[in-house]
Amino acid sequence: MEDYGSSDEDIYSSDQESYDGLENEEADSQWGSSTGNSCKVITRESLLVAQREDLRRVMDLLSLREHHARTLLIHYRWDVERLFAILVEKGKTCLFAEAGVTILEEVDVDSSVSSSTMMCGICMEEVAGSEVTKMDCGHCFCNDCWTEHFIVKIKEGQSKRIRCMAHKCFAICDEAVIRKLVSKRHPDLAEKFDRFLLESYIEDNKMVKWCPSIPHCGNAIRVETDEFCEVECSCGLQFCFSCLSEAHSPCSCWMWELWIKKCRDESETVNWITVHTKPCPKCHKPVEKNGGCNLVSCICGQAFCWLCGGATGRDHTWSSIAGHSCGRYKEDQEKKSERAKRDLYRYMHYHNRYKAHTDSFTQESRLRETIKEKVAILESRDSRLRDFSWVTNGLYRLFRSRRALSFSYPFAFYMFGDDLFKDEMTNEEKEIKQHLFEDQQQQLEANVEKLSKVFEDPFDGFEETEIMDMRMQVLNLSVVTDTLCKKMYECIETDLLGALQFSSHNIAPYQSKGIERATELNGGRNTKANNNITCQKSHDQTNGCTL
Ligand SMILES: [Zn+2]
Ligand SMILES: [Zn+2]
Ligand SMILES: [Zn+2]
Ligand SMILES: [Zn+2]
Ligand SMILES: [Zn+2]
Ligand SMILES: [Zn+2]
Ligand SMILES: [Zn+2]
């Protein structure tokens, strides 16, 4: 055992955390503390809390009442940082005016008018002072007219931004007034109004999205800094936050969408048929060419020329058909079918590899149980070897690298194909870049296969020394594949996608630890803006952090 020298300690550690590591990566100390986006799960219950956090920040900074803060935030799509930036850049007046927020100089806390009676400008009736309402913009109408206006707007689905009734007034009405007036006549509509306001936090917010699970888990996910990321909801679904389909990095969302469509379409098969068959000019059935002769005949009895598809007689030699000449057409036709064939083979090349890796991924996922059993056998042995966390960690490394590898094929298909970036690179540039990329991809592939192979061994029957050998192999290959994945992502981000001039493609960054699991939202958040201010999760459960 001397060979393993200094690492003796951790090999023989009796630390038993490894097992849970299979289901719960956070337990794996080797991954260190989580960095990056810190995604949050917003449940129906915590939606209010989440919204409050942002409202509070704006209310406190600008000394605003809640409904004004909400109007601002809805207008600026819940982007607090942008709202603050506009405040600094253009000033308060402009910030408010753009969003339709009006704040009277003389704050009239009680919005109802106290004078005895007044005439409503809408229905032209004389109404008692207690029956009219004055909005923040100063416009005053009778409660009946306001209520009617609000009900119409809510029914039209405009709850989030109901404007004042006065001609050319763009002020947004106070939600408290709306709620009060509407609930008197239409309580269920008032509830709907509240739900719309609440859900605006998700629907109008670039950084918050509903989890795409079916059936829907009821959760939304909030990301902190980067919308190009992959995340796991508390319901277990992993997805690309940006396009809401399955996690697909290092493929960009656009490439992924195209790829899915391409795989789904039968256009490729249709292409295959057009390459290998031609419709009979009489009955239109596809006819396959048989042998080298360019005169083909359909089962209906019609003879035709394979090169141009035209109906002909049956008299022919090897090089010509009696009474038929189509040489001019020949070359072009052949080129076209050659190109279709080449495109098809190219697609098949990438698709086969993509498919092979996805299949391996599925198979390896099934390995999980077998490996668990093998580890259990090892653990039950009376051996000095106690800690087998390297097995589960290695297996996770295999899963992650395999995923990255399989999605790197559709990426390469589009990156180096003619569909997307024809004008971005010369053929020479493309060739150089493709070589560079394929070198990395192949290295990764080779090491992923090696790692996969190690786990196929019947290691539950191994001697201690063999186990030690296997452990070293797994550890080494894990480091190598992790590094290679990281390098491949870097190459894609900087040398390939980053070098594009006319198009912009983003990919979720490489996560060595795997897809980030969103955590339940419970109070305080860490944003760039208040990172420096002490922010303890414990002290501030409902209000979140303030500036
Ligand atoms: Zn009226
Ligand atoms: Zn008004
Ligand atoms: Zn979910
Ligand atoms: Zn995506
Ligand atoms: Zn026919
Ligand atoms: Zn013939
Ligand atoms: Zn012909």
What report would you give on this structure?
The protein has 547 residues and is α+β, with helices and mostly antiparallel strands. Among the domains are: 56 residues; 87 residues, Zinc/RING finger domain, C3HC4 (zinc finger) (Herpes Virus-1, 2-Layer Sandwich), CATH 3.30.40; 46 residues, no CATH class; 158 residues, no CATH class. Helices cover 46% and strands 8% of the residues. The chain has a 4-stranded mixed β-sheet with strand order 6-7-1-16, with helices on one face. The protein has a 3-stranded mixed β-sheet with strand order 9-8-15, with no helix packed on it. It is extended and about 105 Å long. The N terminus and C terminus are likely disordered. The chain binds zinc ion (7 copies). One zinc ion binds next to loops. This is RBR-type E3 ubiquitin transferase.
